[in-house]
Amino acid sequence: MKNLFTLPRIATGFGLMLALGFNEVSAQSYFSSTQEEFGKNRIQYKRFEWVTIRSNNFEFNYYRSGDKIAQNAAKIAEGEYDRITELLGYTPFTTMKIFLYNSPKELEQSNIGLTAPIDLDGSILNLAKSRVQIAYTGNEEEFKGQLIQQIARLFVYDMLYGGSLKEVLQSSLLLTVPQWYMSGISAYISGDNENPLILDRMRTTILKNKDKKIETLQGKDAEIIGQSIWNYIAVRYGKDNISNILNLTRIIRTEESSITSTLGISYSRFIREWKDYYINSLYANNEEKTEDLSKKANTSPSVEIVETKEKMVLGVGEVDTDNYEFDAENIIKSLASETAKAKGEPIDKTIPKSGRFKETLKIRGPIAYENIVIANDVKSEFLMDPVRRMGMKNTLVMNDLLENHSIKLGLFITPVLRNHDVFLGYNNNVRRIDWGIDIQRRSISLSELDNRSLYLFRPLNINTPQATVLSIDRRLYYNKFAAFAAYPISPNLRVTVSPNLTSTSDIDISDLGRKSLQSIYLGMRGEIVYDNTTPLFSKVLVGTRVKIRLDRTYSLKSSSENFSRLVIDARHYQKILGSLIFASRISYSRSLGKSPKVTILGGVENSVNRSIEPTNGQGVGVPRDLRDILFYDFAGNLRGFNFAKLFGTSHLLTNFELRLPLAQYVSKGSLTSNFLRNLQFVGFTDIGTAWYGNKGPFNRQNSLNTEIIGGGQNPFRATVTNFKNPFLVGYGLGVRTTLLGYFVKADYAWGLEDKTVGPAKLYLSLGYDF
């Protein structure tokens, strides 16, 4: 990639960005469900001082005691380079960077793949292109096979998805191939496909999965099945057709049509004949060979009589024209020698039988390792902000090749430019304790308020009539600087502490004579994060994620503004049958202190067509202080109800979804578009409530069931408690798919409130599920 620069230059630019006030939004987000970050850890026990050697087509990076491993890897890689590129029919334009570790245990410390991974084939592929990491296991043959397989895999990725970040992102939206396709071709290139043991393993795996669709296979089974398919193509149709299929796949975006067009038979027939070859034909041939060998062993050796010809005695310059054989290899060598002599070049190249020049291995170095930084991930997505409505979020992630350092820049902006977020974050993952900084600036402009936005006042004790339209001109600003240190206890568990400095402002532009409201807070955040999830296939996880977060915030202006908030978010993804996934989530929060903050429930996150819960209030007016809006929390989906149906300083919400991906059950050949390939059907149930005070929903005198009548100027005052069910239950069906590169969701839900089912509601929203 051309857009590369070294870490010292980044440090200068980083300091400049801090001075300009770029900011990071991760600490305060309106999207608690879909934008919440979890993630695994890498644990560093030692630092590696890297050095580099370069061969003809590769760059090898190693550390202390790894020089012999690097020399050996260079010989293997260069020795296989011509074979791999000839078989693929493709030569990469960039130099592949290979990071060599002395042992698998030390490889586990690598941060590669930790920053902005992109899911292309069901596994994690990081977009820092043209690099691979591999550990030396002590077994030469095993190391050689793994190295060739990794090189072949990356060559195929580069071939199908393009070498630049832009091409990768564009291709990943249009081209999705099953796991057998990618892992199988690399296994075929690196494997001994004529070995009887390998062939028997292929046959056993095919028999094991004979009733399954090969598109749904994962892991080692997918690799072996893929290896057998590519081997069958090479044996039955010739190796040249492998490169033809690969090249055609990039053009027409589907592996099934590529196989059909290249081989001239239907895909269903191809699959049928492939299975028959391994299960019947190949097995029968092996039986015949075994039987022939046993017969030969039991018979007496035969005597073969060979008629010898009288050797002709030739003089100098004479040729036996009757028995002369042309040697193609000698002819190629002779022509190459003559060409080199004509150009005055030294003759230091050998010619294989294929006729291609094979360069003599040249190794340069060692030299100091240059830790360059690349643009790793660029994302643009539409967000339906609950306060500012529709906007575009753009994110750029940059990191060094080892991903020890990463920088995240972002901008969220709406058609009203005064509504925006600007953010920046830096992570340092070099040592055992990871650390970094997050900086954020949020701006909210409130002008004409109507029934779509008057809900903002309800938690502030202003219940405005539904038909009211208010004209104001207020600016709310939120600025936060946070540093953090994270200690990974295990690859799945970490503890984080984050001191922070926050400022908030409420400025009335229509009355500049009124003093602006401003506060500065000192805070401390503690987090425990557990994440053992693994990708099952594209955008579908299995496993468990849990985050427990506690915020304590102290105002430097007045103790009456102090508050705290505890948040618990636990999610589990369980594979039930085939590719049917059961996803569950429980979310709980509680805010305390003299100025507790509000959580809002109801509707769907990132909704395009949200409907607001109507009010019948009589009070008209605008609160003097609107800064609490900056701290509103939107807990997640509660379908079947209007947006902002409930709110309180505490909430409890559960989401249950049964997800059925269509592509995992239907042959991909019949799915000709990404719309169909990414189609999912969902059945769901949401149960949630929100309340004020210390008496929760399981107490009869909770805030939802308790109403105070009278008081104030009225001499009579009474507390009335009803026994209404405080929990709202929503249930229904949904569909998800990709449309114009964006993941779109439609949910049709009914809401159950106190034994009464309300009318069904349709929700349209953007982005992935929790």
How would you summarize the topology of this molecule?
Layout: E1 5-6, H1 7-20, E2 51-54, E3 58-62, H2 67-88, E4 96-101, H3 104-107, E5 118-119, E6 124-125, E7 131-135, H4 140-161, H5 165-174, H6 179-190, H7 196-208, H8 219-237, H9 240-252, H10 255-263, H11 267-298, H12 328-343, E8 364-368, E9 372-385, E10 389-400, E11 405-413, E12 420-428, E13 434-449, E14 470-490, E15 493-508, E16 517-531, E17 534-537, E18 540-555, E19 563-577, E20 580-592, E21 599-601, E22 633-634, E23 646-648, E24 650-661, H13 674-677, E25 680-691, E26 706-711, E27 714-721, E28 728-739, E29 742-753, E30 756-757, E31 761-766
Parallel strand pairs: 3-4, 4-7, 21-22
Antiparallel strand pairs: 1-9, 2-3, 2-8, 5-6, 9-10, 10-11, 11-12, 12-13, 13-14, 14-15, 15-16, 16-18, 17-18, 18-19, 19-20, 20-24, 21-23, 24-25, 25-28, 26-27, 28-29, 29-30, 29-31
Helix pairs in contact: 2-4, 4-6, 4-9, 6-8, 7-8, 7-11, 9-10
Condensed summary:
The protein has about 775 residues and is α+β, with helices and mostly antiparallel strands. Helix content is about 25%, strand content about 35%. The chain has 13 helices and 31 strands.
